[in-house]
Amino acid sequence: MFTSVIIPAYNEADRIENTLNGIVDIDIIDEIVVIDDGSSDSTVEILSRYKSDKLKFWVQNSNQGKGKALEKGLELCNSISDIVVFLDADLGNTSSEVVKIIMPVINNECDVAIARFRPAKKKGGMGFVKRLARDSVYEMTGVELNSTISGQRAFKKEVIDRFSKIPDGYGVEVGMTIDILKWGYTVREYIVDMTHNETGRDLKGFIHRGKQYLHIKRIVNKKRREWGN
């Protein structure tokens, strides 16, 4: 089994190196593709000096969004990939927990495995966003998942190949989950001990959550039209 990990990164200079360190020596990971999405910090310099034969990276000239970054990553993946993994850049050393979602796919327990984080240590006010995502997926597919906005996912290549385009914006994971379940693939969640930059309860945090909510609402409405729900 050949496994490719795709990491979209935007201004992640503080964490990208540790995120790579957490996965670079994992035997079941064969290549790591990082897409820098127009960072204005030193993310690219860190990637440039990172020493690993597994790593390849691409720099977008401007910030084009997560969907476009993932599409570019898929384009650069080795054509022999059997499993494709999406991973966020801000996980730090806890990225090593990714084996908990890769192994179930290798072992054919499911077609797609999603990382389910333990409850956040600080209250972030994300409840209404997560609720919208969870309830929308359930209403459209009849499948109850708790981590529909989690960016940590492992896919059988045949599943990812069904997508002609990756949804853009903060609704990317919800949109993909709806399509995957509607196509009849199996999706399971696995608890991981990952941590990432938690959104705070300040103005910036609330603006971010507002954008997430609107993006998810938009992609769900789009999927309702496409699937006739």
From TrEMBL:
SUPFAM superfamilies: Nucleotide-diphospho-sugar transferases. Its EC number is 2.4.1.266. Keywords: Glycosyltransferase, Magnesium, Transferase. Its cofactor is Mg(2+). InterPro entries: Glyco_trans_2-like, Glycosyltransferase_2, Nucleotide-diphossugar_trans. Gene3D superfamilies: Spore Coat Polysaccharide Biosynthesis Protein SpsA, Chain A (3.90.550.10). It catalyses: (2R)-3-phosphoglycerate + UDP-alpha-D-glucose = (2R)-2-O-(alpha-D-glucopyranosyl)-3-phospho-glycerate + UDP + H(+); an NDP-alpha-D-glucose + (2R)-3-phosphoglycerate = (2R)-2-O-(alpha-D-glucopyranosyl)-3-phospho-glycerate + a ribonucleoside 5'-diphosphate + H(+). Residues 4-125 form the Glycosyltransferase 2-like domain. It is an enzyme of class 2 (transferase). PANTHER family: GLUCOSYL-3-PHOSPHOGLYCERATE SYNTHASE, UNDECAPRENYL-PHOSPHATE 4-DEOXY-4-FORMAMIDO-L-ARABINOSE TRANSFERASE-RELATED. Belongs to the glycosyltransferase 2 family. This is Glucosyl-3-phosphoglycerate synthase. It comes from Peptostreptococcus canis.
